Amino acid sequence: MVDNRFKSEVIIDPRRIYLAIAVFAFLVLSLVGRLWYLQILKGKDFAIASERNRVREVTRPSPRGLIFDRNGSLMLSNRPFFDLVIIPQYLQNREQTLKIVSELFSIPLEQIEKRLAESASIPHFVPIRIKRNLTLHEVAMMESNKFFLPGVDVDTAPRRDYQRSDSAHLFGYLGEVTNRELDSLNSVARDYQYKVGSIIGKMGVEKKYENSLRGIEGKDYLQVDAFGRLQSASAMDFGLSTRKSATRGNDVVLTIDDDIQRAAVEAFRNKNGAVVAMNAQNGEILAYVSHPNFSLSMYQDGLTGEDWQLLQTNPFKPLLDKVTGGEYPPGSVFKIITALAALEEGVVSPQRTYSCNGVFTLGNGKWRCWKKTGHGVVNLRRSLEESCDVFYYQVGNLLGVDRIAKWSRAFGLGEKTGLDLNLERPGLVPTTEWKLQSKGAPWQSGDTINVSIGQGYNLMTPLQIVTMMAAVGNGGKVYKPYLLKKIVDANGNVVAEEKPVTRRKISYKPENMAVVRSGLEDVVMNPTGTGKRSAVAGFRIAGKTGTAQTAALKRSKDQDEVHFQQRDHAWFAAYAPAENPEIAVVALSEFDGGGGGAQAAPIVQKVLEAYLRKAHPEKFASVKVTQKAVDRKTPLDEQRVSPAVDVLPPADSENGGEDNRNDEAAGD
Prior knowledge:
This protein is an alpha+beta fold. The protein is 36% helix and 19% strand. It is built from 23 helices and 24 strands.
């Protein structure tokens, strides 16, 4: 008898069986489908991708575009440099090899180890630069010891050929891109991507025209094994060539005239400050100098901590571009603005005179003229010629600061010019509202007295002053200064140009400007003019001297007796020819102490002469012939013969251009 208690009946739902079969079939079909997709449909693509995993891409630097002056003279070129490199993949007897390299090339062993450690993440076949810019002797030494130094080699790379380092702020320098720069550059670049280690322009023209100058990097495609070690440099058989050549960047043609640039550099030797020359009729920059200079090669060779410390602690600030970024009181150059404002606002007439006895008194304050004995009775034209301070104290007090500021801004002062080179500063044109907001104090009449002669709160850059001077000479057009003539590609095609841009046209009465311009001519052409040392024989020059105080000094203090940072800045601004200006030039000599007429005017004279000699050679030939004729005359003949040209007058110690100005900074 069977016990039914232990008998059970298992009943399986057919639907579960069908579901399991369906899931199994789906999985099998998915696997088969995936295999079909990978091996049949995409098999060829993945085969190529697999092959490409065996390839490493190594970039090669591209030669940067060349930089020319407006006449096609080469200003900045390239040449191959030699670097000492270590290739970790082939390095043998590491400790001994590195020690030999350290001794042969005078490189601290710690520095080599640090450089190798920093590059540990990159493929071992990529050369690591240990020392840049080897001398020919070092290259020969490396070649003669190459057999004993496996993994150590000499590599070549195109770099800038700094034959001359007299215009560092104009050209700028190159350096490795930083992480911050990398993000910002690649966020706007479409057809080019920077990488860690990429070299970019850091200043000047190199930075401003980086996109045009950089070129396109070359690429080497190298075969490696599973461990990333270089295996072969033979031709690849999977659609890639072994090398893509680098393409040199586009050439940049500047508006700079190299002859005038060299003249400015030479004239400004041993000075500190800035010289800038501009085409008065369109805004082209013809010369651009900021001193003290610094060696461009120190950045290319590798800036040491000691070099950086010297640059940072130099009291004359060699890293500052003083053409665009140096803000200074303009001194008596600013009297041009005060004079025109007074005429236009009806405060004075051309015939109005004031008596100068050397001191101006207002309330309890006294302001002295640069000439201790005074200038006597002075009208506006003579006030410019001899730079009489007392005349402008009177006129400025009548004008008020806000009307002075109105005409300052009309000439583009107090705002950036738009050149966009290095760090351009806007300067400062003070007003009653500005002082109340920034200083929390009301404007005082003494403030206006100081502003009227370019002192006090006034701050301008040399670029702003040359732009103002050009506008005075060209009929009131304030141009945007610019440096680019054109950009040319490798085939000689012009891919970009820059054209003149008029920022504004100043509206004034022609008869008023005529008086101002006549006074500016007298500054240079008359024997009593403060800027006579800027005269160029055969030409009429117009200009204005300026001496900007940097500290309040007692009148008994001579400039030679004070610390250099308390000495006056010397200014001179000019345009020529006076009747139809072609060029405007400004020189600012920092802490020079001798006055604009004595220290800055001779600098401008050399720049003007370089330009005029080149632009008007026939006049210079005429001057030479006439001068010889005069020299052959006897003293009796000289009384009857007048030279056909203006001859540079002798220097005068008393009237040499605010030479001995030690104004007492009296005021409120």
